[in-house]
Specification:
190 residues; alpha/beta; 35% helix
Length: 190
């Protein structure tokens, strides 16, 4: 028996020609600004590339420095704007004596808890980077949003970041109802 969905997707909306002129101009502006930014990643060069080596070393600053610059608004991406309603919160880690930082956004009438795993490839971003989006999810979806401040690589290599997410999920399964009045029902991110 074939499964059928009541959801349909118009793929033509995802083609480049479907983007508005405003979107295309914004993309061009963003790409132009990012060309001159220092690179956070490391590039392995062959010994014959010494002529470019000093320039490339100047541009390579590492992930930690790039995160710091981003938090100060010194990159093409603006610094995150924190909302007063965001609540810092921590959950115990599986590692003795360590807590996992989280950020909570509450709706007026909570119906569920949504555990948010921020984007950034386990290298960038944080639980404080998307207050506007998370407040919208809380208000529009009626969910208590718990955004996880998992440990970031390369300082904390795999599997440290995902372990933090597992720890928060386990804690929410056991404690969300008592802490927030509703159960964990959604886990997601970008």
């Amino acid at each position: 028996m074939a499964l059928e969905s009541d959801l349909s997707i118009d793929v033509s909306k995802f083609r480049p020609e479907a983007a508005s002129d405003g979107i295309m101009k914004f993309n061009e502006l963003l790409m132009d600004r990012m060309k001159s930014e220092p690179k956070w990643f490391r590039v392995n060069l062959s010994p014959c590339a010494y002529g470019l080596l000093s320039l490339i070393r100047q541009l390579q600053i590492g992930a930690a420095k790039y995160r710091e610059m981003k938090s100060k608004g010194e990159t093409a991406i603006p610094a995150a704007a924190l909302l007063d309603r965001g609540e810092p919160f921590s959950i115990p880690s599986r590692e003795q004596g360590r807590d996992i930082p989280c950020r909570v956004m509450r709706p007026q009438t909570p119906r569920a808890v949504f555990m948010h795993i921020h984007g950034g490839g386990f290298v960038f971003s944080s639980e404080t980077a998307q207050d506007q989006l998370l407040a919208g999810l809380a208000d529009d979806g009626g969910v208590v949003v718990v955004s996880v401040g998992y440990r970031l690589a390369p300082e904390n290599p795999f599997p440290k970041g995902p372990e933090d997410c597992y720890d928060v999920a386990e804690w929410l399964i056991d404690n969300a109802k008592g802490k927030f009045g509703v159960d964990l029902q959604f886990v997601g991110g970008e």
